[in-house]
Design brief:
The complex is a heterodimer of chains A (245) and B (255).
Chain A (H helix, E strand, L loop, with lengths): L1 H16 L6 H16 L3 H22 L9 H40 L2 H8 L3 H13 L2 H22 L5 H9 L4 H27 L5 H31 L1
Chain B lengths: L1 E10 L2 E11 L4 E5 L6 H9 L6 E6 L2 E2 L5 H8 L2 E4 L11 H12 L4 H14 L15 H13 L5 E5 L7 H18 L2 E5 L3 H7 L2 E6 L2 E6 L1 H6 L3 H7 L3 H14 L1
Parallel strand pairs in B: 3-8, 3-9, 6-7, 7-8
Antiparallel strand pairs in B: 1-2, 1-4, 4-5, 9-10
Classes of the chains: A mainly alpha (245), B alpha/beta (255).
């Protein structure tokens, strides 16, 4: 019953986020700030993880290609498919649920604990619009981060494959171009946009409605990460079935 | 003037406010006192519109809150200023940013007009050199002054303060109390203060309301509080030996 009540509260929160908008002059500044904090500050970790994930996928594929009849360019093909379909959109989103999600929950949760949200409400500000809407808009730029992740992941696979002596650069590029389905890119970005919305809103929900003190802020961040990850994994399954099944 | 008529508020099975009726007068410092758990904070949050009472009415200069539209409620809230117990300043903004925030949100003033107003209210609360500092870089007393400046920057009709001098040293607490009283008289606003601090009661309490178990137990002025024989009030107000002696001296003087 509690879970159902939480889902209901989450839906009500989403409706409130889009009501009584904050002045555009102020909202614009908030959006720029959130783009910087949620997207730009995450690029480093996204690039780092993507490079090594791409490299490991290439090495793992190469090490499992024991049959001489299977062409080496399969390494490039497997790297492309793995990175574009799953590792960049889903795996990186789980990482972002931890990094960005915990930041969102703890920042909003601290504002709740220190009565800053009450202060906004008393002034007549729609606190949900003021706090959550800029995060949702900022996360619309998340697909750009994922595009970089795809590029860097494949580049990592190329580096590991070529400089590890598993295949030639030409073989890798041939593999990359084999059976390329452009819709797979669209599928990855559709997923990414939905995950972006989840990453912006579920941690906001846990921060906004938390009760208690500093300890509870920490607990809310952990809970937010768990539920954001669960939502990403379940929605990933549903979207894959709907779009590729 | 704020007229509260028979308000009730519950949370689950806990009946916190059990029919409180009070009139808060304009241009006066109205103090609400009472033990922890007496319903003071819930009462103040009802006045602020953060909690909706299940029964009863609150009227702000004759306008009943429950009969106002959403837009009218929003307009009314812009006539309220609130000083929170922990100041509730926005961590990410400077002192100037905090005080300017309501002006940016709700007025169409130019940057220079807003700056002029912010400078004036910060000067009024005796904060001159802290404009560009962040809340974490200033003392508790200064934070309270910034909170007061933010609360009065929109020229409110109603000022609410929740434990405005908690956590402050006695000297700073008196400064904050006096500042609130001066501002109340200067701007002719209706000020409601929740407090535990008996020094505040004696210093600035023009009208004092004692809440007990969600009900108004006693109401009077700071002079009347010396003479009252209401046991609950005397137990609470004169719980320390110092205040017992002060009361005895006052009664001897009067006789």
């Amino acid at each position: 019953m509690n879970y159902l009540a939480s889902v209901g509260s989450y839906a009500i929160m989403i409706r409130e986020v889009f009501k009584k908008p904050t002045k555009w002059r102020i909202m614009k500044t908030l959006i720029y700030k959130e783009i910087d904090e949620l997207i730009f500050s995450s690029l480093g970790i996204i690039i780092f993880i993507s490079f090594f994930i791409g490299a490991v996928v290439a090495i793992q594929t190469a090490l499992n290609l024991t049959n001489p009849l299977i062409p080496r360019n399969l390494i490039g093909f497997a790297t492309r498919q793995s990175v574009i379909l799953e590792f960049a959109p889903t795996f990186v989103s789980i990482i972002m649920a931890g990094k960005v999600g915990s930041y969102i929950t703890s920042s909003i949760g601290t504002m709740r604990v220190t009565e800053q949200i009450d202060a906004l409400e008393v002034m007549g500000v729609n606190s949900l619009n003021y706090l959550v809407f800029p995060k949702i808009i900022a996360m619309l730029f998340y697909p750009f981060a994922i595009a970089i992740s795809m590029y860097v992941g494949i580049f990592g696979g190329w580096m590991a494959g070529v400089f590890g002596g598993f295949l030639t650069s030409t073989d890798f590029v041939t593999g990359l171009q084999t059976d390329f389905v452009p819709f797979h890119i669209a599928y990855a970005f559709i997923k990414t946009l939905i995950f972006a919305f989840i990453i912006a809103t579920i941690p906001s929900f846990h921060g906004f409605y938390m009760k208690g003190g500093a300890l509870e802020v920490g607990k809310a961040s952990t809970t937010a990460f768990v539920w954001t990850s669960v939502a990403i994994i379940i929605i990933n399954y549903i979207l894959t079935q709907l779009l590729l099944g | 003037m704020i007229e509260v008529q028979d308000i009730h508020k519950s949370f689950g099975d806990a009946h916190i406010l059990k029919g409180v009726s009070i009139t808060f007068e304009k241009g006066k410092t109205n103090l609400i006192i009472g033990q922890s758990g007496s319903g003071k904070t819930v009462f103040l949050k009802c006045l602020l519109g953060l909690f909706s009472p299940e029964e009863g009415n609150i009227a702000y200069d004759g306008k009943k809150y429950s009969e106002l539209s959403d837009n009218e409620k929003r307009d009314l809230r812009q006539e309220m200023g609130m000083v929170f117990q922990g100041s509730a300043l926005f961590d990410s903004m400077t002192v100037e940013g905090n005080v300017m925030f309501p002006l940016e949100m709700f007025t169409k003033q130019s940057k220079s007009e807003m700056q002029e107003r912010v400078d004036a209210v910060l000067k009024r609360v005796n904060l001159i050199d802290a404009h560009q500092k962040f809340p974490s870089e200033i003392s508790g007393g200064m934070q309270k002054r910034v909170a007061i400046a933010r609360a009065i920057v929109m020229n409110p009709k109603y000022l609410f303060c929740d434990e405005p001098n908690s956590g402050l040293d006695p000297k700073t607490a008196i400064l904050i109390d006096n500042l609130i009283k001066e501002i109340t008289e200067e701007y002719n606003i209706t000020t409601v203060i929740n407090t535990h601090d008996m020094n505040s009661v004696m210093q600035i309490g023009e009208k004092i309301i004692f809440l007990k178990d969600g009900l108004k137990e006693w109401e009077g002025t700071k002079n009347e509080i010396f003479k009252t024989d209401n046991e609950a009030v005397t137990d609470f107000v004169y719980s320390s030996d110092l205040f017992k002696k002060v009361r005895q001296m006052y009664i001897q003087e009067q006789n």
